[in-house]
């Protein structure tokens, strides 16, 4: 059984937690896009683990974890994270693999990310994580990127000098400090020894596993509405976090994928700039933020919070072909006397959009259309069986399923591993 898991909203749906849960029955967990802009949290007992580049399956000794060709990897972020994983007591040798085709996020990509963001006028800022993701993917698509395998080239130092010179022209143009090329050459020299033990032909590795009928689990980072093609462009990330990205980002064919699981938070959050039709700027939004601990796992920024948006969830169901939903954070809604679901966006002239418009200008003239349902106002985080949930909570979940399609596979009622109910999968 090969499973693709994707985020259905604007990220931070609880993908890390669900991957950790599903790793029990997988053999290989594979990241296929994004980089250290991701922050995936897994809570086991009283210990909280946050992973950025390393697949969340790493917390299960014995399972293989792969960084696929579609990822952009900052070697310094990775080395720091690998040290951390080892300090937590998990083995890496022989079970952690990096694609030689993955592109690297270099120091100058990070500098450019920050300089480009600073140069954008108010209203055009994206609110990036500052991890160099956009410039690294721009270099990849522009065909002047740096792949992991390049680190072994005899002319690697010259390549660094050339790239720094090019980046410096842009940095100076943006009014930022240029970088010292020789310092960069020195900085990256030890990377060969540090990274090489993990670098391999992951396409070959994954296909050997497929032939041996082992189960692959594809861990999406970011989410559908942050997708470069399907998201709220230009307020998006620079990769394809949707299900198709699992194939292009790993070299595994779509025909090998058996099911797609979408992770859906039972309300909505967003970090960074860009449209968010159901955003709450009132006390309800603050209640969601506090109860849900909605502060970025990577940047610590407070997340914007709002009611559940069925328009984007249905869109995510279609774009990804979601078979099963992993719905998360039901417990956060326990406090509300009324819970709301957005079913459309109403234009000033009364027209209601029930699909997500490509032109973001449209959204600025719309208000959300809400359906109100009675809350349940009792604690759900101790519930271990779906049937035992309050009737109003089940009615809320079922109404969402009616509106968005797909089946319920997993329901999460707390951050910890144990607070996960297996339903239809
Ligand atoms: P990811 O990026 O999709 O992996 O999600 P993050 O880790 O960035 O954010 C999800 C946050 O919600 C983390 O702090 C999780 O520990 C937490 N979380 C996940 N599922 C639940 C849940 O069902 N209830 C509550 N209260 N917290 C949850
Ligand atoms: P996980 O995997 C939430 C957002 C940033 C910004 C936009 C572009 O934890 O769900 P980037 O640094 O990628 O160029 O920033 O995308 N963003 C995320 N938001 N969760 C994430 O990852 C995100 N990764 C990027 O806040 O708005
Ligand atoms: Mg996150």
Report on the architecture of this protein:
The chain has 425 residues and is of the alpha/beta class. 30% of the residues lie in helices and 20% in strands. The protein has 13 helices and 20 strands. It has helices at residues 15-23, 75-87, 107-119, 133-141, 156-173, 181-188, 191-195, 202-211, 245-248, 283-292, 310-320, 360-363, 391-404; strands at residues 3-7, 28-31, 40-44, 47-51, 64-67, 72-73, 96-99, 103-104, 199-200, 216-219, 259-265, 268-270, 304-306, 308-309, 324-328, 338-347, 352-353, 366-374, 407-412, 420-422. The strands form 5 sheets. It has a 10-stranded mixed beta sheet with strand order 9-7-5-2-10-1-11-15-19-20, with helices on both faces. Strands 14, 16, 17 and 18 form a 4-stranded mixed beta sheet that branches. The protein has a two-stranded antiparallel sheet with strand order 3-4. A hairpin with a 7-residue loop joins strand 19 and strand 20. Helix 3 crosses helix 4. Magnesium ion binds next to loops. Residues 11-12, 38-40, 297 line the site of magnesium ion.
Output the keywords.
binds magnesium ion; alpha/beta; single chain; 30% helix; 425 residues; binds 6-O-phosphoryl inosine monophosphate; 4-stranded mixed sheet; binds guanosine-5'-diphosphate
Measured distance between first and last alpha carbons: 11 Å
> Which bin fits the share of residues in helices?
25-40%
Count of alpha and pi helical runs: 13
Overall SS class = alpha/beta
Query: What would you call the shape?
Result: globular
Given as residue ranges, the uncertain stretches (5+ residues, pLDDT < 50) are none
Please tally the β strands and state the result.
Answer: 20
Strand order of the largest sheet: 9-7-5-2-10-1-11-15-19-20
What's the mean pLDDT score? 97
Supply Rg: 22 Å
Task: Report the sheet-strand fraction.
Answer: 15-25%
Associated small molecules: guanosine-5'-diphosphate, 6-O-phosphoryl inosine monophosphate, magnesium ion
Largest sheet features: 10 strands, mixed
């Amino acid at each position: 059984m090969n499973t693709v898991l994707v985020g259905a909203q604007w990220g931070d749906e609880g993908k890390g937690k669900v991957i950790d849960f599903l790793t029990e029955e997988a053999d290989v967990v594979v990241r296929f896009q994004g980089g250290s802009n991701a922050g995936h949290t897994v809570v086991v007992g009283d210990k909280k683990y946050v992973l950025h580049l390393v697949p969340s399956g790493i917390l299960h000794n014995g399972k293989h974890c792969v960084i696929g060709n579609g990822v952009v990897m900052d070697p310094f972020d990775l080395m720091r994270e690998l040290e951390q994983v080892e300090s937590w007591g998990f083995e890496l040798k022989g079970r952690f693999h990096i694609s030689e085709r993955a592109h690297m996020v270099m120091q100058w990509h990070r500098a450019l990310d920050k300089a480009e963001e600073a140069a954008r006028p108010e209203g055009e800022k994206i609110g990036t994580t500052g991890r160099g993701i956009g410039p690294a993917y721009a270099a990849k698509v522009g065909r002047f990127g740096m792949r992991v395998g390049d680190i072994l080239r005899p002319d690697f130092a010259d390549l660094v000098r050339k790239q720094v010179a090019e980046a410096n022209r842009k940095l100076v143009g943006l009014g930022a400090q240029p970088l010292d090329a020789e310092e960069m050459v020195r900085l990256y020299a030890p990377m060969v020894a540090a990274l090489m033990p993990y670098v391999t032909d992951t396409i070959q590795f994954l296909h050997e596993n497929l032939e041996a009928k082992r189960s692959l689990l594809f861990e999406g980072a970011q989410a559908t509405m942050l997708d470069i093609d399907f998201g709220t462009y230009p307020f998006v990330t620079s990769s394809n976090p949707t299900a198709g990205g699992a194939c292009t980002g790993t070299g595994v064919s779509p025909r090998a994928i058996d099911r797609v699981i979408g992770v859906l938070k039972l309300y909505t959050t967003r970090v960074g700039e860009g449209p968010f039709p159901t955003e709450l700027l009132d006390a309800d939004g603050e209640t969601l933020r506090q109860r849900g601990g909605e502060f970025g796992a990577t940047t610590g920024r407070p997340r914007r919070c709002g009611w559940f948006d069925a328009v984007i969830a249905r869109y995510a169901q279609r774009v990804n072909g979601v078979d099963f939903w992993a719905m998360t954070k039901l417990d956060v809604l326990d406090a509300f006397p009324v819970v709301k679901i957005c079913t459309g966006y109403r234009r000033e002239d009364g027209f209601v959009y029930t699909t997500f418009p490509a032109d973001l200008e449209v959204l600025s003239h719309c208000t959300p259309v809400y359906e109100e349902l009675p809350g349940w106002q009792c604690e759900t985080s101790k519930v271990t069986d779906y049937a035992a949930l309050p009737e109003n909570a089940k009615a809320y979940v079922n109404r969402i399923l009616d509106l968005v399609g797909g089946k319920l596979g997993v329901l999460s009622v707390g951050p910890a591993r144990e607070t996960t109910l297996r339903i239809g999968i």
